[in-house]
Structure formats: C-alpha cells, structure tokens
Write a structure and sequence with these properties.
By secondary structure, the protein is an alpha+beta fold. It has one domain: Roll (Thiol Ester Dehydrase, Chain A), CATH 3.10.129. It is built from 5 helices and 5 strands; from the N terminus they run βαααααββββ. It has helices at about 25-35, 40-45, 45-50, 60-70, 70-75; strands spanning about 15-20, 80-90, 100-110, 120-130, 135-145. The radius of gyration is 17 Å and the shape is elongated. The protein starts with 13 loop residues before the first strand and ends in a 5-residue tail after the last strand.
Length: about 150
Amino acid sequence: MAGLFYEQFELGQKFSHDIRRTVTETDNILFTTLTHNPAAIHLDAESAKNSPYGQVIMNSVFTLGLMVGVSVGDTTLGTTVANLGWDEVRFPKPVFVGDTLRGETEVMEKRESKSRPETGIVVFKHTAYNQRDELVASCLRSALMYKAPAG
C-alpha cells in the first residue's frame, strides 16, 4: 500500500511530490465541458484575448483536482476512507495551457475520530507551483484516514 496510515503522519511532515504535469488544451476543454462550465475564459480563445490574462486560462477546479491528485500516491493511496472537505482554496496566479505543475503537501493537523475509533482525521495543506516556481494554487484538505491494522 503506497499511502500512509493515520499514525504515520506527523505534524509538520512535508512531501515534495515527484509527479509533474504539463497541462494541455485538451485537459482544459475536456474538463470544462465534462463539468458543464461554459465560461468563455476557458473555451473561447478569441474572447480570452480581451481578458486580463490575454489568453485562455485553465479551469481552476481542474487545477485543484490535479494538485490534490498528485499527492495521493505519497500520502493517502489505499489508506483514506473519505475526503471530508476542502477549505481555504486559493488560486493566486492563473494556470495557462503549457504550464508544468508540481505539488507539495504538509501535515497541518491530526486528531483521532470521535465517531470511528479505527480512523483519524488529517488536515493536509496542498500547494501547486508552475515551472517558474510561482504559487498557483493551495488548499487545506481534511481526510478521514484508516489507522494501521493491529498486529
């Protein structure tokens, strides 16, 4: 199992994820249309030329999903029960087609579950950076994590 159990996480523990991903126009078009987001800033290159960015920007929900997704193999693969919520989601810089993103994760909080003794809750801070090392996204994610099996 690649993921860590609740007991294996320590406050302040940091992960620098090896997976990097260059985002494509296809990613943006598929994700934007699959989620029924008709915003011209994601789909219309001519309209986007007149935006503050001068070009199409990646759908921010795609960026959020990618940021969390690249963390899974190092942190929660096979050891998470459920995501409980995402808080303080921020996108300080836009992501453009052709940007290459990388992610980092830090353990911010952890506590035992009051209702499920076989689990604990871990709060992760996820951050994503582009190829210029500019912060493009961040969030806090609360995850319900399995405890290690007894024995």
